[in-house]
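User: Fold both of these, please.

Assistant: Here is the first one.
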Amino acid sequence: MNEEMLKHQRFLVINGTLILLAAFILGFGFLFFITGEISLWPIPGKIEYQMPGTYDAWRMAHMEGIVNGLMLWLIAALLPVFSSFVKNIKWLVIIPPIISWSIVIASSFDPLFPEARGLLFDASTNLMNDIAFLIFYPGVLLSFVFVIGILVAARRHAKKAS
């Protein structure tokens, strides 16, 4: 494997790892939400505090980080396969972290800010919801571009090979 490919794989693995670490931190928020207190055994003491948000919001934010971090690892592992039919693999290296960070950051708004799911943009209601929406939007659009781009490249390659 050439050094350029390894450089791209390292970039994806590092971003995936950072996103997984963010998911782990969100997991502590989820734990504190569920228990209604901030405590970590064996550290002595606890703080009675109900984290904001809902069970579903915390679970989703935590899982978005896990899924997106692992997705970047998977893309890193598959990069040599993709490079066999994608002319310029740099977009396979740049776009996925943008998608992942966008989705993980935006999904973190919902447990922390009331009604900030980011599903719809409505400038007249909730600023944090609109910020979450604007963070989600590029990730969602790029997800379609990314997957469709791989599909088109794979189909072209398959036609040439047959």
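And the second sequence with its predicted structure:
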Amino acid sequence: MSSMLEARVAMLERQLAAMMQRRGTPFALARSTMAVNDTGPVQTVQLQLDPLSTRDNVPMLYGYGVTGSPPISADFHVAFLDGDRAKAVAIANGHQTYRLRGLGPGDAALYDSRGAHVWLTSAGPSVYCGGQPMTITGDLHVTGAVIAGYGGADQVAVQTHKHATIAVAPTAGT
């Protein structure tokens, strides 16, 4: 009886090992090979898992309120549902070249491949537009000082800046 039980346990162990081998690892690293497809309800991307394995239309997940379009050759962390490589989902991504560096403990930031960023630091938020203008659509309400040219020779505070009184009414078109 004991040998029959041992044989049965050995057979079940072999079957379990074969199943685990077929199932594969639940995670992998990959690199995007094409631009993100942003036309559907969920963004998808083509990922190269290894030199011989590429997956098309892999859905990308983001936290609510945060989204992006990673550049080609971005790094991805991929999860495989049930360990099945045909059921891939991109759960995280980043790009080694464009990653914002120098964040302090507790800092957070949004950034793009052109250098623009919104950086939340212990000294206060910082917005850098990467040399491009900032567009605000809608009303702008500011509590506190508004200072143009802050720290420079041309610094002007909106609250204290006064224009000289014009003695002569301007002429139309001037």
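Helices lie at 2-23.
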